[in-house]
Every structure is written in C-alpha cells, then in structure tokens.
Design a protein that fits this description.
Strand order of the largest sheet: 1-2-3-4-5-6-8-7
Oligomer: single chain
Helix content: 25-40%
Mean pLDDT: 96
Low-confidence stretches: none
Number of helices: 6
Largest sheet: 8 strands, mixed
Shape: globular
Radius of gyration: 17 Å
Strand content: 25-35%
Length: 238
C-alpha cells in the first residue's frame, strides 16, 4: 500500500481510545466501503468520491491516488472503545473511518490533514478529535518527543462545511482565509457535492460546481506555545 513510499516515517499511532493504522486495501477496504457506501453525503464536501463499488474505490482511489503518491498517507481509524465488527481485521476495536496526511513536503517540513471521513455511528464522539490529535502530535512533536518535528500542519475545508471548520477551530488551527473558486467539482450535481452556491462562469460543463476553500494552519511555534496542551486537553475531554 501507499505507506511504503510515504515521504515521512510511518508508524501506528494510538492512545487509550483511538488507534490509527495504515489503511490496507484487503484488510480495511471491503468493510470501509460497505459501511460508507450507503452514505454518499460523507463525500459531499471533498474532491473525491463517492465510489460506486469496492472495485471503483480500490482502483480509482487507493491504487490511483494513495499507492503512487509519496505525499499521501491514509490511515484507518479504529475506535478502541467499541467491539470490532470484524475481529479478523482488527480485534482491538471497530473501524470508525479514515484520516490522512496529504500534500506532505519533507523539503518544506509541512503536511495537511484531510480525507477525514468519520462513519455516522462514530460522529459527535471522541473519535474525530482523537484521530486529528494523534496526527497533530506525530507531525508537530519534536523528534526527541517521538514526532516528525514539522513546521506547519494545514487544514482545508469547503468554506460552507461548518462541521469541518468547527473541528479545525476546536483543535487549535488558526483561520487564514478563503480562496474563492479553488476547486471544480466535476459532475458535482450528480455526485451530490456541495458547491459555493454562486452562479458558475459561462462555458461551465453542465452539472459542474465550484468550491471555495477555507484554509486553517497550525505552526510549530503555536504548538510549542500552548497548542500541544490544548490538543491534549480536547482529546482527554471528548
């Protein structure tokens, strides 16, 4: 899988309630697709998906995007507080969703947290905050603390996705602005995407939508000056 050529060292990340393991097509793919496919709205705000079949998900996302990219690292999110629905996959807990590092750069010492898909039974629980927190800790903690020692982690959300923006703010990311028309959702109407709500330019293909993107950032000095403690507090509280 894609973790073999990710640009940073890869390891399992965990605390008492959540575990992040590299997403494996055979181990996690069938269960994730079975649980997520009845909920296409999970993909409404993000550039990729929804997927019509397990083969579509495997071929057009895992094999086409994750595997060849040194900048992406996709994790399966395991909720250790709930029994596994598939003990042969991961007996330590239930598959709760996905989360990823993306657009990572060893040269510039930065990464982005994205492809955050928390399955409906695990939404509004401790899962999302702990998953995001684990990635933040590994990215921004110094090497002598067991982290990568990066200088910046960013978070990009559809500007109209209030839930995503709320997570970013809760986890200590600072709002940096909105980039208008940052993405085109090709065939977005058919795929159930949520656009920016404004009229599209002349010549736009029928059914295409536009996305404005809100960018949030968390830097190493903000992490040092209270961000680390804030995130740990959120993880312990939720």
């Amino acid at each position: 899988m894609g973790h073999d050529n990710f640009c940073f060292p890869v390891r399992e990340l965990s605390n008492e309630r959540v575990k992040l393991v590299p997403f494996d097509a055979k181990t996690h793919g069938p269960e994730f697709f079975a649980l997520s496919s009845p909920q296409p709205s999970l993909y409404a705000h993000i550039p990729r998906g929804p997927y019509t079949s397990l083969s579509d998900f495997t071929t057009n996302f895992l094999e086409a995007v994750i595997d060849p990219s040194p900048t992406w690292m996709l994790y399966a999110v395991i909720d250790k507080t709930r029994p596994s629905s598939s003990p042969t996959n991961d007996p330590s807990g239930a598959l709760a969703g996905t989360i990823a590092y993306l657009d990572s750069s060893p040269e510039h010492l930065l990464t982005e947290i994205g492809f955050v898909i928390t399955l409906p039974p695990f939404q509004r629980t401790h899962v999302t905050s702990n998953a995001v927190g684990l990635l933040l800790q590994y990215a921004l903690d110094s090497p002598d603390q067991g982290g990568l020692g990066l200088r910046r982690v960013q978070w990009k959300a559809n500007s109209v996705n209030a839930a995503s923006r709320k997570v970013a703010e809760r986890m200590g990311f600072g709002f940096e602005g909105v980039t208008k028309w940052e993405r085109v959702f090709r065939d977005g109407v058919k795929k159930g995407k949520v656009g920016n709500g404004r009229g599209v330019p002349p010549g736009t293909e029928e059914g295409d939508l536009g996305r404005d993107t809100a960018t949030f950032g968390l830097s190493w000095e903000e992490w040092r000056d209270g961000g680390r403690e804030r995130v740990r507090g959120v993880m312990e509280r939720l």
